[in-house]
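Support reply, case 0932

Customer input (verbatim):
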Amino acid sequence: MQILITTSALSRPRIVQFTPWGLVLTLLALTIPMMVLSLALYHAVVLKAAHERWPVISEAVRYFERQDRAQRDRYVRENLDAMAEKVGDLQARLLRLETVSERVAGMAGIKPDELKRMEAAPAGPAGGPLVSLREPRASAASLDDLNHSLDDLQSLSDRHADVFTLIESRLFEKRLEALMVPSSAPVNGPVGSGFGFRSDPFTGRPALHTGLDYPADVGTPILAAAGGVVVSAGPHPQYGLLVEIEHGKGLMTRYAHTSRMLVKQGDIVKRGQHVAEVGNTGRSTGPHLHFEVLVEAVQQNPAKFLAQQGGAPAAPRVAGARPMQLQ
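Our regenerated output:
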């Protein structure tokens, strides 16, 4: 584009030439300052009008403000309703979990009084239902209500975590107790002579047999009936090579007439550990294991303990039959 500029008929015309990019840059150079100035003036006028409550402009400004506020409130309300619905669902799930925790706690041997003590206030009398949860709200009327509901859920979830930790601890204690009860058969085989009175194989007179006899070949593995600590391992005038294992709470097991002992005093053994081998030492008429269970140093019928895990019970004895072994 060319523009001719003349000042008189005799003067030489001046030619001004514009390229497309030059025109664009020129328009931008003129338009941008005008837009900035217009926006500044508009902003100043609108603010002044709103502040000084000009009749027309202030009403228009307030109208748009109300529309914007209503839109924001509608958006917040929709989100609050959605969040309240999710909070209600979580409350229902936690209440169902409460029922499960109570049932599992009962199975773990935890009494309701112990759970209620977890609900006790730091001071003053306590009572009421087992669960210290407010009634679930049907909907969240405000953000404060929603925050209160979330606080309820947090408190209840923390309580459930404590309850399940306690349940886990009790179940672990019961598992440890079960591991310390002599309920596993020490020898894989039948019982030859049971607990009770019988004819003594040496004297022929009635005598109390204080354990179970397991007939087996010399060298047959003898397994610990439960976990515990070896309190003695050595020769005995009547029991021969004898291993005694303490299981706690006054429980102890004896493994008598062994040919070889694989543990020593002070060793910690676990259930099923190979602790000795069947033999014919001490007061015995043939190779076998004489197995005893003692509670507070008093011999008990081992069959009652073995029956807890399906161990082999004592074989019935025929009246007048002569047992194969003693002790």
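We compared this against your earlier run and they match. Two observations from our side: Confidence is low (pLDDT under 50) at residues 126-140, 312-326. DSSP finds five helices and 13 strands in the chain. Please reopen the case if you see a mismatch on your end.
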